[in-house]
Write a structure and sequence with these properties.
77% of the residues lie in helices and 0% in strands. The protein is built from 17 helices and no strands. Helix 4 (124-141) runs antiparallel to helix 8.
């Protein structure tokens, strides 16, 4: 789910405009959804030649793939794996986080090369399509998983998450091609908020399936396969507009350039990282900040249902209702905060969000009564939408011209590094403490504290100058 006038292979994120911390209030008036304000929206927020239908098609991919994270990773299948497939053993949480961490590690090693190849060959749309098909097929394999089928479940979730992450990174690279520099925050927020609506649709349909199945006395092994099928169907149908209307504006590089843009995976990664040390220092600092706080976000995304059931005693339908509310809060947060971000500046917006994450962790840790935990969940939803939207827009502001896919691959690298470290840390703590999920969530808060400290070192105004 994610993130320019065009130049080079993948377009550029703008050559002036947002200086980073101050935003641009001159053109940041909130465009109304009504038709009368639509021309003003396009004039002030979108690049020349970008139709509103194309922005809608781009946001539809966020709508499409959100069901995967909401239903499979966050709500239903994660808890199903720990409670049914893993039979509630203490190692089950660690096994779940280990499989996801392996997929994130694979993304870290391969996405920079895939991003460079997509830039050089003007092939972002093709890569997006291939990753979508791969994610849907791997997710479908989970419908055949029952009690004790640990390895098929782990392989299926690792493969599906790998393909999902590719699509997330590639679709993010279209953002600077669509939005004007001063409007990256709000357009990114549109995508995130619309995406959460897709998650709500998949979750709502899944809740209907679960409620009907439980009313007929069926257990998780009977209704979870249907939940998987519903999620895949929504993903496939909702992604179609992205492939029909989203344009590939990049121009293929000469054949020799394309070959030079796809070296061995580790050398490509090392080269891109070395460049951030000498030429894009602020981008490097931003990646370090993102890697830290996203470790905490990854814990919430992948283990919210597990925490609700193991620490708070929630049933499946209660957990689904909880995540439903979280997604509503996340959609509202991403949409409204996108406008605020353009007004107050990316850095200040992200600072506020990280403070909110710290408060959320403390509330969740001390929550004993169910209503208090609902407050923590609502805070998590608000912070999730805003932190992810803000981070993506900041990357769009600092990514150098003509190299969006490659530098968004570095962003993906930092996010996936966080997704390796965060959930795996949580899983290790629960394993070593024989299931102490409260201690695990408290330690998760340290990732947000670290991200807040690293964010203070990022100078977005200087980073905008470095990218030109």
């Amino acid at each position: 789910m994610p993130l320019p006038p065009q130049a080079g292979n993948a377009g550029q994120a703008g050559q002036a405009g947002d200086s980073g911390d101050s935003g641009d209030s001159g053109n940041s008036g909130a465009p109304a959804a009504a038709g009368g304000a639509a021309p003003a929206l396009a004039a002030t927020s979108l690049n020349p030649g970008v139709a509103r239908r194309e922005v809608w098609a781009w946001a539809m991919y966020d709508f499409a793939n959100s069901g995967y994270t909401t239903v499979i990773l966050t709500t239903v299948f994660s808890a199903y794996f720990v409670g049914v497939v893993g039979r509630g053993e203490h190692w089950a949480t660690l096994a779940w986080t280990g499989a996801l961490s392996l997929s994130y590690l694979a993304i870290m090693l391969t996405m920079p090369t895939l991003g460079a190849r997509a830039d050089a060959r003007a092939a972002k749309r093709r890569l997006l399509f291939a990753s979508t098909v791969g994610c849907i097929l791997a997710t479908l394999s989970l419908a055949r998983v029952g009690a004790g089928d640990v390895w098929p479940a782990l392989i299926g979730i690792a493969l599906s998450n790998y393909f999902y992450c590719i699509g997330e990174s590639v679709v993010a690279a279209f953002l600077p091609e669509l939005a004007r520099p001063h409007a990256l925050g709000r357009v990114s927020g549109w995508g995130w908020s619309f995406g959460y609506c897709g998650g709500l649709l998949s979750l709502g349909l899944s809740l209907v399936v679960v409620t009907l199945a439980q009313g007929r006395g069926l257990g998780a092994e009977q209704f979870v396969p249907w939940v998987v099928l519903v999620t895949c169907a929504v993903f496939a149908l909702s992604a179609l507009p992205s492939f029909l209307f989203l344009r590939e504006r990049a121009v293929p590089a000469p054949e020799g350039s394309a070959r030079r843009a796809t070296p061995a995976m580790l050398s490509q990664l090392a080269h891109a990282w070395r460049e951030t040390r000498t030429h894009y220092v602020q981008f490097r600092r931003l990646l370090m900040c993102v890697a830290c706080y996203q470790a905490g976000v990854a814990v919430v995304i992948t283990l919210a249902a597990v925490y609700a059931e193991q620490a708070m005693g929630f049933r499946t339908e209660q957990t689904m209702l909880l995540v439903f509310v979280v997604n509503i809060a996340a959609a509202a947060g991403a949409f409204l905060f996108g406008y605020m971000q353009d007004r107050i500046g990316h850095k200040r917006a992200l600072t506020i969000t990280l403070c909110g994450w710290i408060v959320m962790v403390l509330v969740a840790y001390f929550a004993v009564a169910v209503p208090v935990f609902w407050v923590a969940a609502f805070l998590a939803g608000l912070c999730m939408g805003t932190s992810q939207s803000a981070g993506r827009a900041m990357v769009g502001s600092l990514a150098p011209a003509g190299r969006q896919a490659e530098f968004f691959a570095l962003w993906t690298f930092s996010v996936q590094l966080a997704a390796v470290v965060g959930p795996l840390t949580y899983g290790l703590i629960t394993w070593l403490t024989q299931g102490n999920h409260r201690l695990a969530i408290l330690i998760t808060g340290l990732f947000f504290v670290g991200g807040l400290a690293l964010l203070r070192r990022v100078d977005l105004a200087q980073g905008m100058r470095e990218r030109l």
